[in-house]
Amino acid sequence: MRLRSSVLRWVLLAASLSLALPASAAPVDLPSIEHFAESYTSTNPHLQAMFRATLLDTTKLAQTAPDGTAYVITGDIPAEWLRDASAQVRPYLYFAREDPAVRQLLRGLIERMVRYIQIDPYANAFTLDYRVWEQKFELDSLSYPMTLAWSYWKTTGDTSVFNQDFAKALDAVLVTMEREQNHPRDSRYTHKELFDGTGRPVGYTGMIWTGFRPSDDACYYNFLIPSEMFAVVALGDMAEIERSVYHNVIKANEALALRAEVQRGIQTYGLVFVPKYGYMYAYEVDGLGHAILTDDANIPSLLSAPYLGYATPDDQYYLNTRRFLLSQDNPSFYQGRFARGIGSFHTPDNWVWPLALVMQGLTATTQAEKEDVLNELLASDPGDHLLHESFDVNDPARFTRQDFGWPNALFSEFILTQFEGRPLIPMGVTSDLEFRSE
For the chain, which domains are there? Predict the structure, then answer.
C-alpha cells in the first residue's frame, strides 16, 4: 500500500464522508481550563509558573475546524499526529464531565481521528484538510484514538462519539491489526525507510507487525513490545465498546481473540532472561530469536506499561525491566549534571527526553523518586516554563523542538495525579489478563 493509493482513498472517502476542505480553523475557547490554570498556586513559584504554562499549552495548539471537528497540531510541525493529539488532550478529561466546551473539543477530535483511520489506517499524521502527512505505520497510532474514546466514555458517560463513523473505524483498526499479524503473507505495506522497503524477516508470533516506533523511527525488529502491550489494552477497550455500546458480540469476541493472541505472543517472545535482572521485557523482537534490550522515551514505552494499563506497578517482570531501563546497562539511558533518564535514538547521545522523565515519575512508587523527577524537570526549563523534546543532560539550554505539545500535557497530568491528588484516568481494564509474574 503506497502513498498514491492513500491519496486516492482520501479523495473517495472525502466524498463519502462529505468532508469539506477547510481553508482555516478557529482557536478553541476553554474558560474552565484557563480559570484552573490561573487559580493554581504552589509554594514553589517555579512549579506554579510551569504548571500553568504546560496545562494551557494544548489550548494554543488546538483548533476548531470549519467542519466542526477539532484539530490539534503537535507543536512546531503543522500536522496532527493520532498519537500526539490523543495524548495532548488527555489532561482535559479531568474537566470534561463539568464543561461542555471541553467535551466538544474531545468529541471533535475523536470524530476527526476516526475519519483519518477510514482514509488510511497505515498513516500516522494528517493535515487540516484530511490529507496524509506521513504514512508511517505505527501500531500505537491505531491504539491511541481507541483508548481516548474509551477513557472519554468512562469519564463522562457520553456515548455520542460512538456513531456510524466510529463503528467503521473500529472495523478498519481490527482488520488492519489482523492483517499485520502475518505481515509477510498478507500485507502490501511498504515504506522507503524500512529495511528493503518491507522490514527485516520475522517469524509468526501472534503479535502485530509494525513498521515504525512512536518516535517515528523505523523499527529494527518489527514486533515492538511496548506497542504490542498498548494494543492489548486498546483491543480490550474495543471489545467493551462493541459489546456494551454497539451490542455486537461477534465483533467483541473477535477483538478479544486477537487480544489473547497478542498477549500470548508478548509473554512467549517478548520476555527474555538477563542474568543480572531476571526475566524482563525486550524492546523489539523478530520471532526468530533476536531481541533488542533498550527503551525509547516516546510512549508507548516499556517504562510506561503500568501507565498504559498493561501491567500493575508491582508486576515482577515490569520491575525487573524498570531496573534495567533506569540503569547504565540500558544503551538509551544517560546521566549528567542536571538529569538522568531515558533518551531516544531519534536524538543525540546524552540528551534525555522530558517525556521519559515524566513517565518515570508517573510510574514511581515512592514520593522521593517523584520529587527527584520533578526537580529534574524544573531544572530542564530553559526559561519559557515549557518542556521540550529533549535536552542535554549537562546543559538544559541546549534542547530540541521549541514547540512540542505532548510533554507539556503529560507534565500537567503528572502534577495533577502525583501532587494534587487526582486519580489516574485509566486507558483500559486489564483485570482479566493473566500475567505470569506471580
Answer: 1-135 (no CATH), 138-293 (1.50.10.10), 332-425 (no CATH)
Q: What residues form DSSP beta bridges with 392? A: 351, 395
Integer Cα distance of 247 and 257 in angstroms: 17
- DSSP annotation of 196: G
Q: Judge if the upstream peptide bond of residue 300 is cis by omega within 30 degrees of 0.
A: yes
Residues of the chain scoring pLDDT < 70: 1-23, 430-438
User: pLDDT per residue over 101-124, tens digit each?
Assistant: 999 999 999 999 999 999 999 999
Residue 240: strand, helix, or coil: helix
- Angle between the N-to-C axes of helices 249-265 and 164-179, in degrees from 0 to 180, rounded to the nearest 10: 40
Cβ atoms 384, 394 nearer than 8 A = no
Contacts of 211 (CB under 8 A, 6+ apart): 136, 137, 138, 189, 191, 194, 199, 218, 219, 222
pLDDT at 26: 86
Using the Cα atoms of residue 264, residue 361, residue 314 and residue 296 in order, give the sign of their dihedral: positive
pLDDT score for 432: 52
Report the Cα 326 to chain-centroid distance in Å.
21
